Amino acid sequence: PVTIGLVGNTVTIYPHVHWRKTTAAAGNVVWRLEFKTSTNGGDFGAYAQVGTDQQFPSENTVDNNTVERLLITSFGPLELPLGLSSIICFKLTRVATATEDTYAGAALAISFDYHYIADSFGSFSESQK
User: Fold this and answer.
1) Report field, pTM of the whole predicted structure over 0.85
2) CA angle 24, 25, 26 (to 5 degrees)
3) What is Dmax (Cα atoms) for the chain?
4) Are 80 and 4 within 8 A, CB to CB?
């Protein structure tokens, strides 16, 4: 979940990637998540990394080294200073050159999402609550 707090406009999100292996082989996959934000009419800054590179497994998923197993890698909580109509741009990368990335096949990213808890419903306007 992500906590959207109106006090100080801090939003806590829990980003994660859903993915699978493309061969029935053992090995870990290392993922890196980066982000940048902007407000309506503002400029995006440089990308910043979310925590550290994350190695499978996580989120209570068990890798049985099959092609069809849905795997999840979480990046933990990310607190962002956001307001109404803020935009988050993410960049998800496999770090195949990392020592911990021992899976020789391709990793297929199926979807990326984040969870959050809202303290109120949204708004009809893009710039005010």
Assistant:
1) no
2) 140
3) 51
4) no
Residues 95 and 33 sit within 8 Å (Cβ to Cβ): no
- 62 CA to centre of own chain: 19
Encoded tokens for 75? 């990046």
User: Hey, is 4 helix, strand or coil?
Assistant: strand
Residue 8 has φ and ψ, to the nearest 5°, of 70, 5
Tell me the C-alpha distance between 91 and 81, whole Å: 18
CA dist 11 → 4, 5, 8, 84, 101 (Å): 4, 6, 9, 11, 31
SS3 of 54-74: the string is EECCCCCCCCCCCCCCCEEEE
**What are the pLDDT tens digits along the chain (129 aa)?**
333 444 457 778 889 999 999 999 988 899 999 999 888 788 888 998 887 788 765 556 677 888 888 888 888 888 887 777 788 899 999 999 999 999 999 999 999 998 876 666 555 444 555
Residue listed under structure tokens 């933990």: 76
The tokens describing 50, both together, are 């979310």
